[in-house]
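Protein: Mutator protein MutT
Species: Asanoa ferruginea
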Amino acid sequence: MSVEPLRCAAGVIVDDDGRVFIQRRSPTRKLFPDTWDVVGGHLEPGETIDEALRREVEEETGWRVSIVLGTIGEHRYFGEDGLERLETDFLIRVDGDLSRPRLEAGKHTSYKWISRDELDVLDENKDIDGGLVRQIIEGGFALLRQIGL
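Structure follows.
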C-alpha cells in the first residue's frame, strides 16, 4: 500500500538587509528537537499550500506574509517518526515588527536573523536534519541573488 507523503509549506523570511529569519525548535518537540528551523508546518485538511504558508507564518511569528518572492523548491525527508514529508519552501517578506516576533509558545524558544556569511550556525543541526535547513536557506539566498535583491 502506497502512502502519500505529508505535505508541508515553509517560508524563508527575508528582511530589508538581506538576512533571513531562523527560530530554534523547543527541546520537547517530537521532530527535530532543539534545532534551528525556518517557519512552516503541515497542511491542514482542505488547505492549500499558500493558505498553510500564511497560517504558519502568523501562528509562529505573529507576522503576515506580504509577498512571496519565489519558490525555493520542494524537499522530501523522513522525520524521526518514520513518516515521509514533502515540503514546499518559499522566499517571503512579511509585515510586522521584525524585531519582535511572537514565537509560538511551547514550540520555539529563540530566534535570530542571519546573513549569508552566518550559515555555519546551521551546521549544528546536520546530524539531526542531514543539513536540510541549511540547504533550504542556501536556496533562499541563491534565489535572492537571482532576483537581484
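Remarks: The chain has a mean pLDDT of 94.
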